[in-house]
Amino acid sequence: MARIVSLGSALQDIYLVDQDDFVSSDYKGQSIFGKLEIGSKVDIDKISYEVGGGGTNSATSFARHGHEAIFIGNISRDPAGEAILQTLDDEGIDSSYVGFSTKLKTGCSVILLDARSGERTILTHRGSSAKFNNFDESDLDLIQPDWLYATTIGGDMDMLLRFFEKAHSINCKVMFNPGLLELEQPKKLIGLLDEVDILIVNKQEAAKIVPGQLLTELLSKLSNYVQTVIITDASMGAIATNGIETYRLGIYEDVKVKDATGAGDAMGSGFLAHLAYGFSFKDSLIFGAANSTSVVKNLGAKKGILTGEEKLHPMPIQEIK
């Protein structure tokens, strides 16, 4: 068992699920939800209230795996914030380092989900989840974690650097899954990578950090900065290296995607949850892929998260020499 801190966002996810009103159509080469008319009233087939955000999603993976999971992030004292606290408590996640904003509402996403195709559009108000200036890296001195798993913190690169440097000063390793606001600052992001032990990004994100189009090319360039790199590519699987072994993965299982929300969180946190228990790099990649596949079969980012006790079947994975 390891002690793992998840640094990132906490959101209330409100799903609006419909069979026919969210049918997509093409407009100037883009796929849009084409049947929602301005001024109309639309009857929705199903509504579901879930808890999301990269910080709480990853912490749930760690807790279900049996690790000591601690979440650091901001919410507000409102109904959405109470739902998040209840979820953290239900999952056995330490919430004693949660911050409370008095000026902003708890972050919220409204997810328009086409029940037939699984396609979705997400409307997000990040609210308090995007603010981290009330936290101090000295919290890590008190926690003494084995791992820091960082997701987006609203593009605050200086704070990320302070947390990463503090982590390494107390022999805590760092895994980083940057978000959009961090990726918009590629020079600063590259400067952070010296302090990162494991980096996970998708193919499009990798191409924002280093030039390249092929997965092997992107992996090679990113591994100049970080020893262990995982690059995911949706239905095409993933590629990963730890500086010694390099693997090309297919998908764990061909399933109907009900909701892709949280798939990346499940891959990264599932990988680390397994690795922190002493499993091999290869086996941890397989578990991460299985965790992600299980999540997309369910509505919401947490329902399908695995515990590590499941019996996994073989999947396409090949070592690249």
CATH topology grouping: UDP-N-acetylmuramoyl-L-alanine:D-glutamate ligase
Radius of gyration: 19 Å
Described by the principal axes of the CA atoms, the overall outline is globular
- Counted by DSSP, the helix tally is 10
**What structural class do you assign from the helix and strand content?**
alpha/beta
Unreliable stretches: none
Strand runs, count: 17
Average pLDDT score: 94
What would CATH call the class? Alpha Beta
Terminal CA distance: 32 Å
Name the CATH architecture.
Answer: 3-Layer(aba) Sandwich
Q: How many domain modules?
A: 1
Write structural notes for this entry.
There is one protein chain. By secondary structure, the chain is α/β, with parallel strands linked by helices. It has a single domain, classed as 3-Layer(aba) Sandwich (UDP-N-acetylmuramoyl-L-alanine:D-glutamate ligase), CATH 3.40.1190.20. It is built from 10 helices and 17 strands. A 9-stranded mixed sheet has the order 6-1-11-12-13-14-15-16-17, with helices on both faces. The protein has a 4-stranded mixed sheet with strand order 5-2-9-10. Strand 14 and strand 15 (238-241) form a beta hairpin. 45% of the residues are buried.
Give a quick summary of the entry:
The protein has helices at 54-64, 79-90, 139-143, 157-169, 180-183, 186-192, 203-209, 215-222, 263-275, 281-296, and strands at residues 3-7, 11-18, 24-27, 30-33, 46-52, 68-72, 74-76, 99-101, 108-114, 120-125, 147-150, 173-176, 198-202, 228-232, 238-241, 246-249, 317-319. It has 321 residues and is of the alpha/beta class. It has one domain: Ribokinase (UDP-N-acetylmuramoyl-L-alanine:D-glutamate ligase), CATH 3.40.1190.20.
